[in-house]
Structure formats: structure tokens, C-alpha cells
Amino acid sequence: MRGKDVTLDNMSITYPNGFRAVQPTNLTIQAGEFFSILGPSGCGKTTILRAVSGFIEPSEGEVRIGGQNMAGIGPNTRPTALIFQNLALFPLMPVWENVAFGLESRGLSKRDRRAQAQKLLDLVALGDQAEKKPGELSGGQRQRVAIARALAVEPAVLLLDEPLSALDLKLRQHMRAELRAIQKQTGVTFIYITHDQGEALTMSDRIAVMNEGRIEQVGTGDEIYSAPQTAFTASFVGEANRLEGRVMAASEGMADIETPMGRFRARNPHDLAPGAEAMLFVRPEAMLLDHVENQLLARMQRRDLEGAFLNLFFDAQGTELAVHITNDGQVHVPSEGDTKIGFRAESAVILPSGPLARTGQELAAQ
Ligand code: ATP
């Protein structure tokens, strides 16, 4: 099997009711890459997948697979295969026949189909389960049968739409490693859709973060976590403390921002000029107790012990700030009165004010 690259060239999608689910998008996914599209519900992830698989046509621009424009080429003739969250295995067929199902139209003998299915079942570590019925397998095993079945047609690109979301947490975590291994072993390009940042960060070579029909940022997990380019990405991927204010001075990639809690210095990747409304983001693990640079006064509200980590929550003039520190048993933070906390300028970033990811509370209140 061999992966192919996938290019979206200025591609947008407007549904027949006039709703533009995907804004004009340029994106190249490399051949053999494990690429995730990460974003909240309704941001347009599945719509992009449908356009790549050929179930809908772009309204503008084009989809190219292996350099070939896919316009007018239907789902069955594209070099793609799709795996959904609710996989539909045939309950009365043994596992191997489920896997071989897609090979029937290829004129192979039953013997050859069985042999081909066996190879794929070995690949997903189910070689000894070939004669069982899907109902006799666990959820994770059934998911692996679905993967083997999708790979049977030798796709160059495998499209996976939240395939693990029906599984319990432990199995999901186990399957992340399995999927990643299967992808590397086959070399097939995987495009993986998820709203779960943990999944995207652990499995992907690169990730596109998406919000409201737009790609906000493309990069490795590390780049996205450590150097977010937009307020949405900084607030959606991982936890971040946020201070809002106005840029006061800027030079050599750094800037000063004036906020209600004081004036702070941080990285300025967009070269925002003085006067710009901006947001400063700093990860809880980059916060330091008794630090003199970028210092502010805050009062401790509560502390949660998470094994090796101590998560402290401070109030600074009505804003909650989280501080995660390694728990070495030596930490003493007074619960009364103000404490000095701070952060290094290099570990914080100033970004243009913009839409933020909704919090769990906001989503629950919907
Ligand atoms: P989820 O994670 O919930 O599946 P998603 O990011 O995959 O979300 P899409 O399914 O791509 O989102 O939908 C993007 C937007 O387009 C949503 O606002 C959705 O309501 C809208 N949409 C989807 N299908 C249609 C359709 N056939 N007609 C009109 N609007 C649609």
C-alpha cells in the first residue's frame, strides 16, 4: 500500500441552504502522513472529509489527490476509504468475510479473498479471530475489523471520522497507539477527524486546528501547543491563562502589554504594534511562584493534588489563574493574603484579540 498527498486548493463548501460550512481553504497533506483535523462540534471537519471522499463537490476551488483533480470523480472511484464512528459490520458474516467484502467486485477467488483478509487481520493483530462473528468480539476488536475492511481495497488515503468516540476511555487510549502503528506500517495517508485534543496530539504527525469553517493553524502537536498563532488555538488546545489588554511597546519579537493586573512582557509573533488590543496567554505549567519577572499579586483559592502535580488556582482581580507545579512535598502557599506569582517573558505569547474556544461550562449550558 502507498499513501498519496491530498491538496485543498482554495476550496470552499456552501450547502444548498446557503450555509457556508467551509471558508476558502488551502491545505496540503503529505503522502504517508498521519494528519488530524481538530476542532469543536460543527466547525466543518466532516464537511472537509466528505469533499475529500467525493460525497460532496467543492463549491469553489478543488480537491487533488496524488496531484489529480477529483472534480466529477465519485466516492467509489477515488483512492480513498472511509471509517465512521458507528461502524457497520455484517453480524452474520465471519470476521474474515467482513474484511474481504470490498474485494468481491475484484473478481478474486474465495481462496484469494480469504488469504488477503488474513493478511489484513494479521496487520491489525486479529489473525486468530478470523472465523468469529463480529458479535463475539470486543468493541476495540470490532473497530480493528473495520480498519482492516477499509484497508482491504488498498486505499491511498484513509479517512477516519471520530472512529474511537464510541469506545470507553481505556480502549480509546489503547487504540490510539494501535492506529498510529497501523498507519506507519502501511504508509497510507490517514486523515483523522476529532474534537479530542488528546487524540490529535498523541497520534498525529501534523494537526490542523479548525474553527467556524476556517483552519486556524497547521503544525506539529508541539508547535500548536507551544506556539499557538491565534487566541482560538491557544484556548482550545491545552489549558491557558489569559490576560487581556493593549500593546504598549514592541521590539525584536517581544512586546509589553498593559492589563488590569499590570504590565507584562511576552513574545509577539504577529509583530502587533502599540495600541493593538491583544490577549496574553501563558500555560499553567509555565507559571512560577516567587518569580520576579512579569510578577503579579494573586490570592490562592484552592489546590488540587494530581499525583505528581499540584494544581493551584489563584484569583487576580476577578480572573482565575491556574498554576501547575511539580509536587515535591515542599510547596507552601499561604491561603490568606496576596502571593506573588509570575512567568518568564519567553513562556508567554501575545496574540491578537479574537474568538476563544468555548469552555466546558459554556458548552454544558447550551
Ligand atoms: P461534528 O464534530 O459535530 O460532526 P463537524 O465539525 O464535523 O461537527 P460538520 O458536520 O462539517 O461539522 O458541519 C459543519 C456545519 O455545517 C455545521 O454548522 C452543520 O450544521 C452544517 N451542515 C452540515 N451538513 C449540512 C447540510 N447538509 N446542509 C446544511 N448545513 C449543514
From TrEMBL:
Keyword Nucleotide-binding: yes
GO molecular-function term, one example from the UniProt record: ATP binding
UniProt entry tagged with the keyword Transport: yes
InterPro entries (alphabetical): AAA+_ATPase, ABC_SmlMolc_Importer, ABC_transporter-like_ATP-bd, ABC_transporter-like_CS, Mo/tungstate-bd_C_term_dom, P-loop_NTPase
Pfam families: ABC_tran
Annotated keywords: ATP-binding, Nucleotide-binding, Transport
Record domain ABC transporter: where: 6-237
Transmembrane region(s): none
Protein's name in the database: ABC transporter ATP-binding protein
